Amino acid sequence: MNAEIDRAVECLRDGGVVAVPTDTQYALSVDAFNESAVERIFRMKGRPSGMALPVLISSAEALDDVAIDVPDVAARLARRYWPGALTLVVRRAPSVPSAVTAGMDTVAVRVPDHPAPREVSRRLGRPITGTSANATGQAPLNSPADLMREFGDSLDFVIEGNIQAGRPSTILDVTGKTPEVVREGAISSDELSEYLGKAVRSQARAASAG
């Protein structure tokens, strides 16, 4: 795995696209601070430019690399659920290209419960994108062979690894006065409410391929 991680990081430094196994599904990853690489992801997936990309970081301590004005509730949730299947929507730092966030002032960020993306991000020294490895609107692809058939030469490298192929992460917006679930996923609204000791709002859609 170490040799694969090294090769993946080299690809990312060169502006490449790497498929990385995570705890929920394979992700298409680029250096999230490389705007031209980010644009490659949109073209590969056929993803509308108005749909933001989630980012993956190596640890909760790396949240400051992508976020500003992080509320206390986000720190509490990170301590409890990271690494894990909770994506937090926070205020974006100026270092995050607007292409990643679809021009919005927020960014969706997670520490995955899988060593591969965490180590890739750590060695790269930057966050990586964590969008599902599929054409937008299609089912995620969870084998290297399927990924290569779908994306061909536009995909620079695939890290082979086991994934749990469970439900996608829950997305929770913590930028307002009351946390709000914007996508239901592996962690329920009820569980989040119980942990926080107060109700979270939910105007969520069911988790789907992204």
Highlighted features:
single chain, 210 residues, alpha/beta, 7 helices
Lay out the secondary structure.
Elements: H1 2-13, E1 18-21, E2 26-29, H2 35-45, E3 55-56, E4 67-68, H3 72-81, E5 86-92, H4 98-101, E6 106-110, H5 115-124, E7 128-129, E8 131-132, H6 144-151, E9 157-158, E10 170-173, E11 180-184, H7 189-196, E12 201-206
Parallel strand pairs: 1-9, 3-6, 5-10, 11-12
Antiparallel strand pairs: 1-2, 2-8, 3-7, 4-5, 5-6, 10-11
Helix pairs in contact: 1-5
Brief characterization of the structure:
This protein has 210 residues and is an alpha/beta fold. It contains 7 helices and 12 strands.
Global structural class:
alpha/beta
Q: In one word, what is the shape?
A: globular
- Strand content is 15-25%
Order of helices and strands: HEEHEEHEHEHEEHEEEHE
Instruction: Please outline the major beta sheet.
Output: 8 strands, mixed
Distance between the termini: 26 Å
Estimated radius of gyration: 16 Å
Number of helices in the DSSP assignment: 7
**Total beta strands:** 12
